[in-house]
Amino acid sequence: MTTVTTADPPARTFATTMDIVARPPVVFVAGHGSWLTDSEGREYLDFIQGWAVNCLGHSPTPIIQALARQAAQLINCSPAFYNDQMIKLAELLTRHSGLHQVFLANSGAEANEGAIKLARKWGAVHRGGAFEIITMEHGFHGRTLATMAASGKSQWEHLYEPKVPGFVKVPLNDLAAVEAAITPRTVAVMLEPIQGEAGVFEATIPFLRGLRALTRDKGLLLILDEIQTGIGRTGRLFGFEHAGTTPDIMTLAKGLGGGVPLAALVAHRDVCCFEYGDQGGTFCGNPLMAAAGCAVIEEVTKPGFLDRVTQAGAYLTDGLRVLSRKHGCGAVRGRGLLLALDLKRDVSGAVVELAMRRGLLINGPRPDSLRFMPALTVSDAEIDGMIGILDTVLGDAAPV
Ligand SMILES: Cc1ncc(COP(=O)(O)O)c(C=O)c1O
What is the distance between the alpha carbons of residues 262 and 60, in angstroms, rounded to a whole number? Predict the structure, then answer.
């Protein structure tokens, strides 16, 4: 049963945790499916899901079982040795993507850092030392120094200088700008099929197809950051499937581990040119996380699973459109279960805060937009519950 409250939770700070973000004064202690429970026993309907990470919801049985089984069997044997789960997950990812080789990592930023390294190595070996990567304005690729430089977040423009060089930014969906930015130094184009952190803005299908043709024509690599769009989030296993084009390099994280830290760098065999010692990491490919990844892929590729994601996405879109008309908001953006609502006014902070007080977790990636990234297993009743709470919150926090 839902416990929805409008009372202010007690104010608390925890001085021993680094203050890296303004966290609300709530401590979560449990989660099941689409629901989280805090230390006071309050329940919250979760449409954030660890930032699109818990694709099967909180503590799903397939992951609990895979982790328990694997923890009892083998947790880590060093990335210098093969393990059965690493091999199984690499086989699943290559079979389903049409790509050929996988490097398992622990976070999206680490996978993208690997993609950048692989492209630079390929440029050194095959393109006379070309190293520059064209990325998109407002894109988000992670928080390591290189992935921050690859990102197009304006707030980061002068943070942690000097920047890692070698990234050239162009506007999303502007093929002519990409073409104009290509020089003999260029080795790759890198982008997200949907810019999630920027507020859910899609790379159009003609743009993705145009990029594939352009990069082939110019002998460049196409790198797709599917960290947010991958593993069923858009209704297909990988976002690129909507455009019918395959990248040379794809990165995955978030949904891949279903909540545990797991990422993957997946590449075409012609690009795989790392030599011994070029790439690695102590935890990379550990069997415990890889077992969780196998369980996720097995669930998400079961017959009907992705059709249900598409259906739930359409149902959520319809509900948001009804709210939009009622509350004077704008378009619903996105695909599958990665959606945003344009509020048409800069009130997302107030809406997110009031929604939380009423037992709903949603995200405001920009002042004028809300983002929805529920579990891929979310039910229609939970979508109805979310729409109901948001309806009252929009009426109170963002009156027209
Ligand atoms: C598209 C994209 N790339 C990369 C990342 C970074 O992933 P991580 O936070 O796991 O390093 C994110 C995280 O939000 C993302 O959305």
Answer: 16
